[in-house]
Design a protein that fits this description.
This protein has 300 residues and is of the alpha+beta class. Helices cover 21% and strands 37% of the residues. The protein has 2 domains: 135 residues, Roll (Diaminopimelate Epimerase, Chain A, domain 1), CATH 3.10.310; 149 residues, Diaminopimelate Epimerase, Chain A, domain 1, CATH 3.10.310.10. α3 packs across α7.
Length: 300
């Protein structure tokens, strides 16, 4: 064991302790997957990451660093808030990207591009592994598990970009915030729920229920919640980059959201996550503020 530099970063918030925390071990060399998993489980956070040099193939393709992403019980090929938090930690620790203002991360899904947007970081949403509408049996089960009528689910789609999210859109943000899901019914499913705000709903064009107008820097277009199997039944994630990335690809692609908007997540948990989404050409960028809460070393 040796002392390794360590940061705990809050993601999707400029204010400490209002977003989604991430443990970042800045020197993961020599650690086995078992050691990484054990440490992740010990942190009791939703994810921990371990920063490593790029593989030879990754370096040749332009990667600045490599990261392995773990959640309690499993390694993830990609996750959004760990991507932003790891980039924040790498830059704060003195990392210098090959191209100013642009960082390339290597992870389980391959290379993920990040950019610095003023005081925020943003990643380019990776391609969806699985898309298209859900099976009707899944939709009916999700409705039952969320405690809503089947008719309250206006739209649905696979949102699989590593984590195999199933996305559903409800009628309103208020309905999303009122959910009290049944973990027994939703067991084994990763479910993302989105609903338009009252302001967005009021601006929806006729015949396009759920389409919202673009939101400005302070306006919120959608409320999002993310439910997934946890160690003690159903868990809820405070702010979820991978889900918001996949939701953006689905909603913008289907004409259910504008090319630029802000989503709120974590409200039901007492957080204030803000996810900034912007389509730029063929890419959809998902970003937010990041802030260091703990800095030191860990013995691993």
């Amino acid at each position: 064991m040796r002392q390794r530099p360590y940061l705990q970063v809050d993601v999707f918030t400029p204010e400490p302790y209002r977003g989604n925390p991430l443990a970042v071990v800045l020197d993961g060399e020599g650690l086995t997957a078992e050691a990484m998993q054990q440490f992740t489980n010990w942190t009791n956070l939703s994810e921990a990451t371990f920063v490593l040099p790029p593989t030879p193939e990754g370096r040749a393709a332009g990667a600045d660093y490599r990261v392995r992403i773990f959640s309690p019980g499993r390694e993830l090929p990609f996750a959004g808030h760990p991507t932003l938090g790891s980039c924040h930690a790498w830059l704060q620790s003195g990392g210098q990207p090959r191209v100013a203002g642009r960082v390339v991360q290597e992870c389980g899904v391959g290379l993920v591009a990040l950019r610095q947007d003023d005081d925020r970081l943003a990643f380019a949403a990776p391609p969806l592994i699985k898309s298209g509408p859900l099976d009707e049996a899944d939709v009916a089960r999700i409705a039952q598990g969320l405690g809503v009528a089947r008719s309250d689910i206006l739209h649905h789609a696979w949102c699989d970009n590593g984590p195999n999210w199933r996305g559903v859109m409800l009628r309103s943000a208020a309905q999303v915030l009122a959910l009290k899901p049944d973990g027994a019914i939703l067991a084994g499913l990763d479910v993302g729920v989105v609903g338009p705000t009252a302001e967005g709903g009021a601006s929806a064009p006729r015949g396009k229920v759920g389409v919202v107008g673009s939101s400005d820097a302070d306006g919120i277009a959608f409320e999002v919640r993310a439910f997934f199997p946890g160690n003690n039944g159903l868990a809820e994630d405070p702010v979820t980059g991978s889900l918001n990335a996949a939701l953006a690809q689905w909603l913008i692609g289907a004409g259910l959201a504008p090319a630029r908007y802000v989503a709120s997540q974590g409200t039901a948990l007492g957080r204030a996550g803000r996810v900034h989404v912007e389509q730029d050409g063929a890419d959809i960028w998902v970003g937010g503020h990041t802030v260091t809460c703990i800095s030191g070393t860990v013995r691993l």
